[in-house]
Specification:
Elements lengths: L3 H4 L12 E3 H11 L4 E4 L6 H9 L3 E4 L3 H15 L3 E5 L2 H17 L3 E7 L2 H5 L10 H5 L5 E4 L6 H13 L5 E7 H5 L1 E3 H7 L14 H12 L4 E5 L1 H5 L3 H11 L3 E3 L19 H7 L2 E5 L21 E6 L13 E4 L2 H12 L8 H22 L8 H14 L4 E5 L2 H9 L8 E3 L9 H12 L3 E6 H5 L5 H6 L4 E7 L29 H5 L4 E5 L2 H14 L3 E6 L24
Helix pairs in contact: 2-8, 4-5, 4-19, 11-15, 13-15, 17-18, 17-23
The structure holds adenosine-5'-diphosphate (ADP), ligand TPW and magnesium ion.
Length: 580
């Protein structure tokens, strides 16, 4: 097959016999050679023609309305596929818009490459005021895992290869690739160009744990009276689903999934302790972390959440520096999760002792009690809806459609949906992640639909949705099977706050009352529905999931139903002058 490069004919007399290629085509060929066939971005100088040529060469080029959303799309494509998601932006402002997503990818350990056009080095370095001038490489460096610039066409192959390796090997993360405008037009001999490309072999090599570390971990686990396994999104990313299930079931240990690890084993699995979270964190004596960090989301492994009883931590992670980051890890197992978990399962042998029935029974009872307590609230038919009534409906829909992807952001909308909606399959729940970031909604939805071909249900707070809302046009343009449900409670956390000064402005957390977000989807040819009862919501979501048509449902939620900051109000600093 002819490559893009070989199609470019020589034009000058001297080169009459020689086929030429250029920077544009070398970048395209380098991406394709490495199986990177989708680009999320926003066009403009100097990458407009690059996007056109990439599309002509069979790369899927998805054009967004804002780079941050394209970047979030690329980041979650990385999580879902284990290949770096590619985001393409113009220089300075476009680059900066994409940079938030690159930093987010790095923080969340998702492989992503941000490719940005940039201004001429000579002008930037002398600060002579080029079009969209910025020293982008320097700006990107502290916010990503690695940053590279390519100045010569013959180095494109190496530049792309380095970016791929840096993104996916070890702890995955975001990589910045700086491509100055001049590079795209640089010409070289097509044969030499082809030879300069690199197909990356074994981009994320297995990292085998040492046998001593595996034995140590098993010894600690065996000594436990009240063991617990915590699964994090690293475990979901690793795609070692069978090994993880084998470890959990062979050990008989209760497991707690972090938000994006839900569904690795079904939330309805008899060993799942999701609905007994406080109990297992407080009362366990040995905790095995698999692809989960002891950061704020786990209260740093200490304090009230973890109770007074002494705890021993076993941690499985590919990043050795993660060990002892917050508390002592008595059994670090450094390696990739697939290799580590297989080694553990093998080391357990044929007759591993089950944990004490006392412990597993306590956990199960607590879990069943909590689920039973919640059940009637999920069946309420109130109008306006409260969170539980609306989420009860969505919970059933995901149960009936377990292969749909659930995107989730907001405060109450996030925390309550996480607790209420059970997940049944791995990598089906994607959300705000390590930073608790608002704005991932539509970018994640678009990438999830593109990368998996499955229907997407996005459950969005009205504030959260606003950060990426313009991308409903993108969803309509590409006719994606995305159903967005907006939990519209007229504001951030609640829609009931009043301006304490009595002045004309509404309170900072309050939006326009009775807003009709459904009209936004209609504006671009999608389906809009205003749902005021759980029954209406159920009908509308089912119709959307059956038809696959872009749909936005404005779910009217009681503005008084939510609480400040959802479940993390305790993180708000308090003023001594606040309550006089
Ligand atoms: P969560 O937020 O779900 O608790 P984190 O993002 O805090 O999860 O943790 C994910 C961890 O998984 C990171 O420390 C990362 O280094 C690790 N990780 C990611 N991929 C792998 C892998 N393939 N093998 C081992 N560890 C991994
Ligand atoms: C990039 C701060 C956390 S949650 C939230 C904001 C603005 C919105 C909550 O309101 P929403 O949900 O979505 O309507 P609900 O159901 O409680 O009413 N900017 C960024 N990230 C974060 N996290 C914030 C601001 C925040
Ligand atoms: Mg809200």
């Amino acid at each position: 097959m002819l490559t893009a490069a070989s199609k470019l004919e020589a034009t000058t007399a001297n080169d009459a016999e020689q086929e030429l290629t250029d920077g544009f085509h070398l970048i395209i060929d380098a991406l394709k050679l490495n199986g990177l066939n989708t680009i999320y971005g926003v066009p403009g100088i100097p990458i407009t023609d690059f996007g056109r040529m990439a599309q002509a060469e069979g790369i899927r080029v998805l054009s967004f309305r804002h780079e941050q959303n394209a970047g979030y799309a690329a980041s979650i494509a990385g999580f879902l596929t284990k290949k770096p998601g590619v985001c393409l932006t113009v220089s300075a402002p476009g680059f900066l818009n994409g940079l938030t997503a690159l930093a987010h990818a790095t923080t969340n350990c998702f492989p992503m490459i941000l490719i940005s056009g940039s201004s001429e080095r000579e002008i930037v370095d002398l600060q002579q005021g080029d079009y969209e001038e910025m020293d982008q490489l320097a700006v990107a460096k502290p916010l990503c895992k690695a940053a590279f610039r390519v100045l010569h066409a013959q180095d494109i192959g190496i530049g792309v290869a380095r970016a791929i390796r840096a993104a996916v090997s070890g702890r995955p993360g975001g990589v910045y690739l700086d491509l100055p405008a001049k590079l795209f037009g640089q010409v070289m001999n097509a044969d030499a160009g082809k030879k300069s490309l690199v197909k990356v072999i074994d981009a994320a090599p297995a990292q085998i744990p040492s046998p001593e570390s595996v034995k140590r971990a098993l010894d600690v686990l065996k000594s436990a009276k009240k063991p617990l396994i915590i699964l994090g999104k690293g475990a979901a990313y690793a795609q070692a689903d069978d090994e993880i299930r084998a470890l959990i079931e062979k050990s008989g240990v209760p497991f707690l999934p972090m938000s994006m690890a839900k569904g690795l084993l079904p939330d309805t699995h008899p060993q799942c302790a999701g609905a007994a979270r406080s109990t297992v964190l407080k009362d366990s004596d040995v905790v095995m972390l698999i692809g989960a960090r002891l950061n704020w989301l786990l209260s740093h492994g200490k304090g009230k959440t973890w109770g007074d009883a002494p705890k021993k931590f076993i941690q499985i992670d590919i990043e050795p520096k993660e060990m002892d980051s917050n508390v002592e890890i008595v059994a670090p197992v450094v390696g990739d999760i697939g290799s580590c978990v297989s080694a553990l399962v093998q080391g357990m042998g044929g007759n591993w002792p089950a944990p004490s029935a006392d412990w597993t029974k306590t956990v199960q009872t607590k879990r069943d009690d909590n689920i039973a307590k919640m059940a009637p609230r999920l069946m309420n038919n109130n109008s306006p809806m409260d969170y539980h009534g609306a989420l009860g409906v969505l919970r059933t829909i995901i149960k009936e459609r377990p292969d749909a992807i659930l995107v989730n952001e907001g405060a109450n909308t996030l925390d309550l949906a996480r607790g209420i909606i059970d997940m049944y399959q791995p990598r089906k729940r994607i959300d705000v992640g390590t930073w608790g970031i608002m704005g991932i909604g539509m970018g994640y939805s678009i990438a999830a639909a593109i990368e998996t071909g499955k229907p997407v249900l996005a459950v969005e707070g009205d504030s959260a949705f606003g950060f990426s809302g313009m991308e409903v046009e993108t969803i309509c343009r590409y006719k994606l099977p995305v159903c967005v449900v907006i939990f519209n409670n007229d504001g951030i956390y609640r829609g009931t706050d009043v301006n304490p000064s009595g002045g004309p402005d509404v309170a900072p957390t309050v939006f326009v009352k009775g807003a009709r977000y459904d009209k936004m989807m209609e504006a671009f040819g999608g389906v809009g529905v205003n749902a005021t009862t759980p029954d209406e919501l159920r009908r509308a979501v089912n119709a959307a999931m059956d038809s696959g048509k872009p749909t936005l449902i404005n779910a009217v939620i009681d503005p008084a139903a939510g609480s400040e900051s959802g479940r993390i109000g305790n993180l708000n600093p308090q003023s001594v002058l606040k309550k006089k």
